[in-house]
Design a protein that fits this description.
By secondary structure, the chain is of the alpha/beta class. The protein folds into 3 domains: 4-153, Alpha-Beta Complex (Conserved hypothetical protein from pyrococcus furiosus pfu- 392566-001, ParB domain), CATH 3.90.1530.10; 168-232, no CATH class; 246-289, no CATH class. Helices cover 51% and strands 11% of the residues. The protein has helices at 20-23, 29-39, 61-69, 86-100, 105-121, 129-137, 141-148, 155-158, 179-197, 213-240, 251-257, 276-280, 292-303, 311-334, and strands at 4-10, 14-15, 45-49, 55-59, 74-80, 260-264, 271-275. The chain starts with a strand and ends with a helix.
């Protein structure tokens, strides 16, 4: 078991854990520095000594930055005599940040990703990764998912998730949108805020935009509906390019119209009359129906690939596909 030794270490001999800033934000350093200045420093950082003689922080990166801001030259630190493995170093980094401060939603999302990467590299781990993550962070498995999807947001939306009290679950469904759709969502939220306050969009304070779950999901629902309507119009316009021929009621009249074809003779200007039967040879080789409906069907099926937003959507599409397969089978049997 490792032991600790408490000493004051010069700040310029200490290095950061390189993973810290990629996972956790370093906000509110000024507030922490003011607290240390008023109440004194009473929580040593945790470090270990590297092979090159320098020290690396295991826990206490914000305290280190606060002491630098106060122009201190040294910092109280507990030195462990054990050089930790990469896995242990990562776990100490995660646990110390989880225990010592309120994390912003984006920090939690990154920490979850880091913890799950630790599980992936552990050959002895055989359990449910989401369940293990939920237990480690003290949250539900549903919240593990809600945090994780924040990493799929565009930077402009992730910026809001850096606030500790941000209602992160309001953006869960936004993560399913494309980057352009997410930008459109943010634009609509800004516009709505401007309309409610009777100001221009440029005057909107981005920090005051209301990100209620109901509002965000209603905007997304409207966007999805507009997209579906546009796809339907596009499919209809595509079908209009191949109009179905008007039915001919009198079959005898149709045969009479096609009975004789008059064409120009290539050898001169004489006109030559051909029998329609002689032109088509076998009537089985002549397609007399418009098959554009099948092309339209393929277009519509292709459009549904990116429209399924939930398991319920996917089930509904699969049910329709089952009906379509039966219809195709019936058609084949009748041919």
């Amino acid at each position: 078991m490792s032991s600790l030794k408490l000493i004051d270490i010069p700040l310029d001999q200490i290095d950061f854990n390189p993973d810290n800033t990629s996972i956790f934000n370093m906000g509110e350093i000024e507030h922490l520095a003011k607290t240390i200045q008023e109440e004194g420093y009473n929580d040593p950082i945790l470090v270990y000594k590297k092979d090159d003689g320098r020290y690396e922080i295991l826990s206490g990166h914000r305290r280190y930055e606060a002491m630098k801001l106060l122009n201190e030259s040294t910092i109280p630190a507990n030195i462990t005599d054990e050089i930790p493995s990469d896995t242990k170093r990562d776990l100490i980094l995660l646990s110390s940040n989880i225990a010592n401060r309120k994390l912003a939603p984006l920090d939690t999302a990154r920490a979850i990703k880091k913890y799950q990467s630790i599980l992936d590299k552990d050959p002895n781990f055989k359990g449910n990764k989401k369940a293990a993550t939920a237990e480690y962070f003290g949250i539900t498995q549903s919240n593990v998912q809600r945090y994780s999807v924040l990493l799929k947001l565009i930077p402009e939306l992730q910026e809001y998730c850096k606030k500790p009290n941000f209602p992160y679950s309001s953006l869960s469904k936004a993560a399913n949108l494309t980057k352009e759709e997410q930008k459109e969502l943010l634009t609509k939220l800004i516009r709505l805020e401007a309309d409610e306050k009777n100001i221009s969009e440029d005057e909107v304070d981005k920090d005051e935009i209301l990100f209620s779950r109901t509002r965000v999901e209603q905007i997304i629902k409207n966007m999805v509906r507009a997209k579906e309507n546009a796809q339907k119009r596009e499919a209809k316009e595509s079908n209009d390019d191949f109009p179905m021929p008007a039915p001919i009621d009198d079959e005898a009249e149709a045969e009479e119209e096609l009975d004789d074809l008059v064409v120009a003779d290539d050898a001169g200007n004489d006109e030559t009359t051909f029998s329609f039967d002689s032109l088509i040879g076998n009537e089985d080789e002549y397609v007399s129906i418009n098959l554009a409906g099948f092309d339209q069907c393929k277009v519509m099926i292709e459009s549904y690939k990116n429209m399924a937003r939930s398991n319920a959507d996917k089930k509904a599409i699969k049910d329709k596909l089952s009906e379509l397969r039966q219809a195709i089978k019936d058609l084949e049997n009748n041919l």
